[in-house]
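Dataset card, provenance and construction

Sequences and ligand SMILES were collected as paired inputs. For each pair, a complete structure of the chain with the small molecule in place was predicted and serialized as structure tokens. The example below shows a pair involving zinc ion. Curators did not alter the output after generation; any descriptive sentences attached to a record were derived from the structure itself.
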Amino acid sequence: MIFKRSFIPVLLFVFSFLPLTHAQAGNSAKLSVHWEELTASDFREGIQRSQGTCVLPFGILEKHGPHLPLGTDLLDVRHAALHAAEQEYAVVFPEYYFGQIAEAKHEPGTMAYSRSLQLALLQETTDEMARNGCKKVLIVNGHGGNSSLLPYFAQTQLDKPHDYVVYVFDERTPQQGGPPKTDALDMHAGQSETSKMMISRPDLVHLDRAKNESGADQKRQKLSEDVYTGIWWYTRFPFHYSGDGSIATKQLGEYQMNWWIDSIVKVIKTVKEDDVSPKLQKEFYEKSTHPLDTQP
Ligand SMILES: [Zn+2]
């Protein structure tokens, strides 16, 4: 009797490993899309599975009206990119928020790196990604203030030879379709951005505070629209809020977030299929070393 009893816990202990072993086997078959979650050998497999396509979701830390978190763009872009990569496998780089946000330096919590560091850090990041097998780096932009920086960065890859191609995807909101959008401005922490945040991190949305500040256009600059100045944003939206977050809805957020995820899935697919850019980029670098031989 005593013997039998003492065996029971041992047997339970042994059997408790069986389902665990199955679970572990299942986990290794399903490769994480998160760069930082992969082991070194799983990373090798991830690069193979993604055909060398890696995603760099690009966020920022800046005020988002009175009601959304500083990391709104980072949290949203990672939500969209990670869900997309789950559907169309790609390795997704960890949190990256070292972009252009000089225009919010007067607000608390903004991390605004210098122009030279933004470019240098992004170059070293994509160089290092490529050294690790990411021969196609897809930057998915989550922050409007990066929309000049990223095409410029991509263009300047032609300066000198790189053994990888940089792709930039900079769309976050569908132009039409879905539940009606009633926010005429909707440029920053407005209806769309607040609605999307209700999907990615609803616990961080303080809808009751959305009317505490004004997101109205202050229209203080009297210049024609074809003249650009860096202070334009501050002249119009000094509170770093543009639109009305209080009219956000979960339905709109769901529609827009799904659209964003689907769009990234399509882009990952086309980037994987793209054999023209790597080939012609290589040809271009080679021809650039002896331009006098280039014939029409
Ligand atoms: Zn934003």
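Derived descriptions for this record:
The two ends are 96 Å apart (CA to CA).
Confidence is low (pLDDT under 50) at residues 1-28.
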